[in-house]
Design brief:
This protein is α/β, with parallel strands linked by helices and 676 residues long. It has four domains: 156 residues, no CATH class; 177 residues, P-loop containing nucleotide triphosphate hydrolases (Rossmann fold), CATH 3.40.50; 222 residues, Rossmann fold; 56 residues. 45% of the residues lie in helices and 17% in strands. It contains 27 helices and 20 strands. Strand 16, helix 21 and strand 17 form a beta-alpha-beta unit. The longest helix is centred in the first third of the chain and has 20 residues.
């Protein structure tokens, strides 16, 4: 049974187990979020009640139901519990500025809260009847209160105000609520293992969950030392800004004690500068050898050496109490093991299922501690198309195929009809009650490279016509290839966008962040973790079966939550456009994929290719560099040294480069330096 939408935060006595099971079954059968609590979540244990025989049932768009488990018709203790609970809920409403939308408790308590006894609820219909709300305004107000009680605090300045008139505004104003899996991760204490694994698709909220977990740990464990890390400097810099903003938004009263209780740094760092990276901190703290990123030292090797040196010490005093690792799929296993050794309590890791697919580890995600397969950002149709392109599902042979258990772990429903496989996804909660029939979730557009600028403006004009309230920051333009012609294209676009629309445009690869009021233009390296209503992805070169470029396309397409436009050079990709235009039309119209299932022989052959490709990607950078050098015997020692330094810096900043791309960059550098 899938209980990912169901959350029970109370200890269940045997006598009430049937009641809890009833709610759990209803949640599963109807894909309805249901929470059972006895105190507001995420509130520092500030709200404690003397009466322990009351529970609160929360169902979106329904009244909050406070239930007395003692079956007493008149119970003063229960009445006191209800009054105290409503008073505390009113305080939360005021604390997070919800009062401007809801008013004081006297205005909503009788409309949005009901009290009853367990004896009055014989079945689910009894509960639904007593909590029914007659109109959309009350249903929305109930969701406001539920968001407060579950810690799913929404920005009232964004979601409040007048009722939206457009799809874009409605999506922006949607009240986001944690599901059961997300709530369990944030609020579960004292895990029984050292490393807690979160796996999820793009758009499942992994980074946001880490932020909430960080806040929860920081507040509850007053003297703890916590580090938040990610692979590269850009993401770390972004989190250094984002975390204090998040703490302020969540009204955290604890001051952040930087580099005393909380560290935010990337994985490696610099020699002698402990607070620049997790690895450098460990080396400094334990007085072990530091190996800088270089021609001869990979990060995996450096971490392996650190582990060996630590194990030679008599006693290892942990230097951190907790560690949170974002984008864990980017890290070698030795780094994760090193983190466990130096962390006293728990290492929390969050990774992307799909980015592990080509390492053939998707099956491992099934046994993750928290498997997040419900995507709340990306439209299911967009996600399906992105998977289709990423894995070549409409091609012969396919690039990657998953077995049924793996499809299910990725949030798909699997069925077979006439020797074909049907893959579908649960509709997105973010879009419930919205008429999206006139919106194409994905558009594949073929165009001559010379017409890319005109096509991009046609797309923007179309967005502006269909969504009159669209802002510059609602749109991102992302190009697949890191080549000069695309950077020239970005320069042209930024000027023309300012002229045509009076919109500022920001280049993500220069600014390293997004702006609240500017259209975002970027290469693929600076788009991870971001989201926009509309994304225009551009592919100029031939889209071949390189698994890493396919994975990048998947990542680019899944940055949108309304429409992804995929602009492809039709001179180099006519076959691709023909196949995937039909696929996009079918997915947009029907909401599922109907696919040819490859034979066992085809699957085996593709798995073998993937194994080879992954092995090649994992080859030491120095081996790749030296192999290219053999093509240029006249290359001087000085130029070789310059190229090694340049390539190492380049790879450090972009850890997702394929071997083919690295080789291409090396050859270009050689031509420039050698004059060939």
């Amino acid at each position: 049974m899938d209980n990912s939408l169901f959350y029970c935060g109370i200890s269940v006595a045997n006598e009430h187990k049937s009641f809890i099971d009833m709610l759990k079954v209803h949640s599963n059968q109807t894909s309805t979020q249901i929470y059972i609590i006895n105190t507001p979540l995420g509130t520092e244990n500030s709200y404690q009640y003397n009466y322990e025989d009351a529970v609160i049932v929360l169902i979106p768009k329904h009244k909050i139901c406070i239930i007395d488990l003692k079956n007493n018709e008149k119970n003063p203790q229960f009445e006191d519990f209800c009054e105290d609970f409503i008073e505390d809920l009113g305080y939360l409403s005021d604390k997070y500025s919800y009062r401007k939308e809801l008013g004081r408790p006297r205005a909503w308590k009788d409309l949005l809260i009901t009290q009853t006894s367990i004896s009055n609820i014989k079945n689910i219909n009894d509960l639904l009847s007593v909590t029914d709300l007659p109109n959309d305004i009350l249903k929305r107000n109930a969701n406001y209160l539920i968001s407060l009680l579950t810690g799913s605090i929404n920005d009232i300045s964004r979601i409040g105000g007048s009722h939206p008139n457009t799809i874009l505004d409605e999506v922006k104003k949607k009240i986001i609520l944690f599901d059961g899996d997300q709530s369990r991760f944030i609020y579960s204490d004292n895990p029984s293992k050292k490393r807690v694994l979160i796996q999820g698709l793009a758009g499942t909220g992994k980074t946001e969950l880490l932020l909430h977990k960080l806040k929860d740990l920081y507040i509850k464990n007053k003297n703890s030392k916590i580090v938040f890390t990610c692979f590269n400097k850009i993401l770390a810099q972004s989190m250094n800004k984002r975390i204090p903003e998040f703490f302020n938004f969540m009204k955290v009263e604890e001051q952040i004690k930087w580099n005393e209780r909380l560290w935010v740094m990337h994985s490696w760092g610099s020699r002698g500068q402990a607070n620049t990276g997790v690895y450098s901190y460990i080396c400094t703290n334990y007085n072990i050898n530091f190996h800088p990123y270089s021609y001869t030292w990979s990060f995996d090797r450096a971490c392996s050496e650190a582990i060996s040196e630590l194990r030679e010490q008599e006693y290892i005093e942990p230097c951190f109490d907790y560690m949170l690792i974002d984008e864990s799929q980017d890290f070698p296993q030795n780094f994760l093991e090193l983190c466990e050794i130096v962390t006293k309590n728990v290492v929390y890791t969050a990774g992307d299922i799909f980015q592990d697919i080509y390492d053939r580890t998707i099956i491992k995600s099934v046994s993750s501690d928290y498997l997040l397969n419900k995507c709340y950002r990306t439209d299911p149709k967009t996600l399906m198309f992105a998977h289709a392109v990423g894995m070549g599902l409409y091609e012969i042979p396919v690039i990657r195929w998953l077995e049924d258990e793996e499809w299910i772990s990725c949030g798909y429903k699997v069925s077979r009809i006439n020797n074909k496989i049907k893959l579908s996804r649960t509709p997105l909660i973010r879009f419930e009650d919205l008429d999206t029939s006139q919106i194409k979730s994905i558009e594949l557009i073929g165009s001559n490279r010379d017409n890319f600028v005109d096509k991009i403006f046609e797309i923007i004009d179309d967005i502006r016509a269909n969504h009159p309230t669209v802002q510059a920051s609602d749109i991102a333009i992302v190009f697949l290839e890191n080549e000069n012609s695309n950077y020239q294209l970005a320069d042209i676009l930024s000027i023309e966008i300012a002229t045509r629309y009076r919109w500022p445009a920001i280049k993500g690869y220069e600014a390293k962040n997004k702006s609240e009021n500017a259209l975002f233009i970027s290469n693929r390296n600076n788009i991870k973790g971001l989201e926009f209503p509309f994304v225009i992805s551009i592919a100029n070169k031939k889209i071949d079966d390189d698994i890493f470029s396919r994975n990048t396309i998947y990542m680019m397409l899944t940055r949108s939550f309304i429409t992804s436009y995929f602009l492809v050079n039709n001179k180099t990709n006519s076959d691709f456009i023909e196949k995937y235009s039909k696929a996009a039309d079918h997915i947009n119209k029907n909401g599922f994929m109907f696919l040819r299932e490859p034979s066992k022989e085809e699957k085996d052959q593709q798995n073998q290719k993937i194994s080879i490709a992954v092995t090649q990607k994992q080859r030491p950078i120095k081996d790749i560099i030296e192999e290219v050098f053999t093509e240029y015997p006249s290359l001087s020692s000085k130029n070789k040294a310059n190229i090694r330094n340049s390539v190492m810096t380049m790879v450090e900043e972009n850890n997702h480069m394929s071997e083919k791309e690295i080789q291409s960059r090396i050859r270009k550098l050689i031509i420039v330096l050698n004059g060939d």
